[in-house]
Each structure stands twice: as structure tokens, then as C-alpha cells.
Amino acid sequence: MSTPHTPASLPSPTSEPGPRHARWLELFFDLVFVAVVAQLSHGLHGDPGWREFAVFLGLYFPPWWMWANLTVSANLFQDDSARRRVVMLIAMLCLAVMAAAVPEADGDRAPAYALGYAGTRLVLLALWWPATRYPAPRTLPRWRPLTYCLLSGVLWAGSAAVPAPWRYGMWVALLLAEMVLLLTARGRGIPGPVHTGHLVERVGLFVIIVLGESVLALITSTDHTWTAAAGVVAVLGFVLLAALWWSYFDFASTAAERVIGAAGTREAYLLARDVGGFLHFFVTAAVISMAAGLATAVEESGHDHLARGAVWALAGGLAAYHAAHALIALRFGRPLREVTVWALPGIGIPLLVVLGADVLAPWLVVLLLAAEAIAHLLYATTIRSRRQTAGTA
């Protein structure tokens, strides 16, 4: 439906910040990320070294970045036309190509990975180009989608013909250029207010995807290693994931909805960009890493200790998870002293577990991390109860 300020031929920008939920197309679109996450997590199984971790982060960021961009476009435009559906399905196909290329994306399948990402940039151009025809003040300067989407897509496609290792340097440079363009825009040209509930829901659904991969890793690894010791490690791993789920959706997502919802249009967009686009990359990457570490812990449950790379994937992942949430809390304006109280133990205890990797049995590693996650949850619950009691008084 057109608005008095928008021609009928253009997708309607959001005009009311009322309740919105993810559409069926968005949920279908997320299925391709189940494959992306599974492929990336598999690359960290066993005893990964620094190269494997670097490749993991490097290959995870482009699909995550595209997911964040497409999520924002769905948030800002209320458009369920056939055109948009076809465009989103094309993006899904491009990301599926990237997922299939992940196992050898640092080798023979790099051209396919680059071409898949190039296709998603062109999809993004198709979604944002109509915003360049909105009447002022909602008009988006045409040079931004032409550079951010079209030029980037052309250069990514061109990188498929560039030999390694120069190809990977080109990827890094292009991603940095995209981020610079986004940061310098500072919300100018945004066609309407951010639907906070929809955005928080979408990010939460992605967190569910990575937690789901962790649960699946526990189940499949237990199936491969059907022993009592593997069962103990799997149960402890599930307790760890359950505590993370509980704390995230009781505290992190509710805080995001409250803070972003109370902000003005541009500030809400900037908060969504920083927290949902940048910092949640580290939140979700940490959980994917933990999924790989948990799978290895189950498979090596009969050993005296875990390989150090597996402990880094698991305990280091938990430390990174807490560090990312500490940065999110600071971005939301929480006092440094308040954040430090829970962030330091949340980061320090997993790192101490890494130091003891050579003497800790797999079940003990997972037990200590699960105990830390439970303590973290209990602390947050206690603080909230005290604040609620004080507010009532």
C-alpha cells in the first residue's frame, strides 16, 4: 500500500514502529544459514590451530555481513511483493553456493565463494535502489548503493580471477571498504524508523540457529561415540548451552529491545548497526566455535585430556562470548564498573581452563564451563530480582 509520501511503484518504507514479526520468507531464508554454520563449525573440529581459527572468522564474516544487511532491509521496507520474494530467493541460492564452497574456500572453491558473495551484493542493490527515488528527506543518495552494492559486487566477482594469496587480501579490502561506507553514512537516507521488536527477534532467531548447531553437534558426536563417558560430556554440554540460552533470551535480548526501542530513529539505527551487525558477529562466532569444541569433547571423552585447539574452541569461545556481551552492555550505556563485575569472571575463568588444558579431562573442562555459565545466569537473575524489589519499594 502506498503512503501520501511514497509513489505506489515503490516499496513502502516503515511508517509506524508497531509490532512486527519475521515473515515466512525470512524464516525460509534462514535455513541456508543452518548449512553455513554447520560447514564452518566442522572446520574447527579436532585440534584447530591459529590458521583454522583465522580461516573460520574470515569465511564467516561475509555471509554474516550479508545476513545483517538483508535483515535491516527487511526491517525498513514493508514489501512482500513477488519481486522481493524472487530477489530474496536468489540471495538464498547465492549463499547456498557460498556454504557449499566453505570447506575449500581457501583453496580450489574460492572462486565459487567469491561469485556467491558477489551475487548477494547485487541482490542488495535491487532491494535498496527504490529508496533512491523517495521524496526528501528520505531520499538515499544514489552513489551509496552504487558503491556499497554494485561496485562491491563487481569487484568481488573480479576477485574470482585473482590468484591466491592476493585474492584474500582483496576480500579483506573490499569488506573494510563496505564497513567504512556504512560507518560514514551514520544513518542518513534511512527511509523510516527501525522496528525494534522485529530486529531483536531476527537476531534472536540467528542465535537460536547457532545454538541449534551446538545441540546437533552434541547429538551426532554422541551417536559416533556411544559410551557412558561420551554421554556424560554430552549432558554437561547441553547444560552449558541451556544456561547460555536462558541468559541470552532473559537478559541480552530484552535489554536490546528496551534500549533500542527507547532511542530515536537515527540512534536506533546506529545501535542496531553496532550491536546487531558488528558485535553479534562475535557472539554468534563464539557459539559456533563452542559447537565444534563440544563435538570434539564428546568424541574424545575417553582421553586423558582434550587437544589444546579443542579447548581453545570451547573455552576460548565462551570467553569471547562474554567479552562480546560486555561490549554490547557498554554500547548500551551501562557503567564500566557494573559490566566489569560479571565480565572479568566470564572471560577469566574460561581462559584459566585453557591454561589447564593439558591436565583436565574432557568432562571436567565442560563441567567447569557449564558451572561458570550457570553462575553467570544466577548472578544476573539475582541482580534483576534486587532491582525489581527496589523498584517496587
Automatic annotation (TrEMBL):
<dbReference type="InterPro" id="IPR010640">
    <property type="entry name" value="Low_temperature_requirement_A"/>
</dbReference>
<feature type="transmembrane region" description="Helical">
    <location>
        <begin position="363"/>
        <end position="380"/>
    </location>
</feature>
<feature type="transmembrane region" description="Helical">
    <location>
        <begin position="339"/>
        <end position="357"/>
    </location>
</feature>
<feature type="transmembrane region" description="Helical">
    <location>
        <begin position="86"/>
        <end position="102"/>
    </location>
</feature>
<protein>
    <submittedName>
        <fullName>Low temperature requirement protein A</fullName>
    </submittedName>
</protein>
<feature type="transmembrane region" description="Helical">
    <location>
        <begin position="278"/>
        <end position="298"/>
    </location>
</feature>
<feature type="transmembrane region" description="Helical">
    <location>
        <begin position="53"/>
        <end position="74"/>
    </location>
</feature>
<feature type="transmembrane region" description="Helical">
    <location>
        <begin position="114"/>
        <end position="131"/>
    </location>
</feature>
<feature type="transmembrane region" description="Helical">
    <location>
        <begin position="143"/>
        <end position="162"/>
    </location>
</feature>
<feature type="transmembrane region" description="Helical">
    <location>
        <begin position="199"/>
        <end position="220"/>
    </location>
</feature>
<dbReference type="Pfam" id="PF06772">
    <property type="entry name" value="LtrA"/>
</dbReference>
<feature type="transmembrane region" description="Helical">
    <location>
        <begin position="310"/>
        <end position="332"/>
    </location>
</feature>
<keyword id="KW-0472">Membrane</keyword>
<keyword id="KW-1133">Transmembrane helix</keyword>
<feature type="transmembrane region" description="Helical">
    <location>
        <begin position="226"/>
        <end position="248"/>
    </location>
</feature>
<feature type="transmembrane region" description="Helical">
    <location>
        <begin position="168"/>
        <end position="187"/>
    </location>
</feature>
<keyword id="KW-0812">Transmembrane</keyword>
